[in-house]
Amino acid sequence: xxxxxxxxxxxxxxxxxxxxxxxxxxxxxxxxxxxxxxxxxxxxxxxxxxxxxxxxxxxxxxxxxxxxxxxxxxxxxxxxxxxxxxxxxxxxxxxxxxxxxxxxxxxxxxxxxxxxxxxxxxxxxxxxxxxxxxxxxxxxxxxxxxxxxxxxxxxxxxxxxxxxxxxxxxxxxxxxxxxxxxxxxx
Length: 186
Fold this sequence. Notes:
It is built from six helices and five strands; from the N terminus they run ααααββαββαβ.
């Protein structure tokens, strides 16, 4: 919560408290309602007091509109779009998209048939994790088996590391690479 939001909440809380105390005091007979009425009418008869109250009312109306319709988000809330927020009793942990990309790349690098990889991490509004993995494979690779193994291992690694389910892991094979044979001339 930003400073302005806290200030608005504090001001409106104090106003509601004052209204509740004054109305309760009138109901219980601690304050004479006619005396309160006379005090308010005399205050409103003065032009300076009316101008001050009008300015105060404009400020309060603007605060009310801001508080009702325009919610401020903190830097922490903005950063949630850059990763997954994990919470427990001890605190919060923000796992960034870069961290997830590193996990994916390290798992995929362990496959012999993969020669190049790029991963794109997407998080929707429900924090569901989707991964688009673009790979180049060797011409010796069985693409169906390789992609299935990659999907299983990446999902397992993310589940084990982060305790997060992967909604989808889509693999796009962009190229088949023929390994360059090392020829030595004698």
